[in-house]
């Protein structure tokens, strides 16, 4: 059994604090998001994905804490062997492989949640098609990252036992390349809704607000790019000490991504769900409805779902921009039919 390692340096403390904060802010954000969705609409697939991302995020940071408390993370590798024994070092290098798997799962589900949120907010065929394509790219990239991480050293045990014969590829270069693909998928996800938002019948100020709400994921780029700069010079043979900063940033990135994926949907918590029925209908969204992701119901014959453009009649009154899942509304034709039949019903009731 691997013994616990004493907390003696700032690197260990930094990882423990960062992991604790990452779990807290992600859990708080998802909790607030679910509360907001309960107020304004039903849960949809984007919510289930963000819950899955939260679960994986908690597992990721639990793993990170164990690397510190039982794997000697924060000490030089040679010091771990001499002070705590080879079992502690083996625990760390096996744990860092588990960390990579959990990281990919967390990032994958957080990005899929954002894409599903897009299709709920803007349910038009072209958006759904592009969201599916980018989602497929995200899944394939994460699967490739996991498989490549396990195969980069042959045999597999070479990842945690450097004394056995075998070969390893350039791990810093590999993870740097995977990080570049990560940034590319982020660019696709952030740019995707902008053309649709730009075509809305809103003032430019409100268009910019809506774009900003759906583009705040750009903040993760700061973390990702900074982490990328640390990878080329990373010494994987002394990963227990040299990889503290890169691992800390890697753990922080998906937690921040979860938070940013929740922010656009928190508006109902500030009272905007108390809009009048006619106002919410005019804007093409209804507070009590849920999303209709990938369903044929509500589609036209051509396969395109009707997209309600927003009319900004209340711009001068300081009306707020709120993002809610789209639901079907009664068409103007059906309303006219109901009104036209009302006099006939009254005549029948009077005879």
From TrEMBL:
Cellular component terms per the entry's GO annotation: membrane
TM stretches of this protein: 12-36, 48-71, 91-122, 134-152, 172-196, 208-226, 246-266
Membrane-protein topology: Multi-pass membrane protein
Keywords noted in UniProt: Membrane, Transmembrane, Transmembrane helix
Region (Disordered): 294-351
Domain Rhodopsin: 32-270
Bias (Polar residues) ranges: 328-341
Pfam families: Fung_rhodopsin
Subcellular location: Membrane
Protein family (similarity comment): Belongs to the SAT4 family.
Protein name: Rhodopsin domain-containing protein
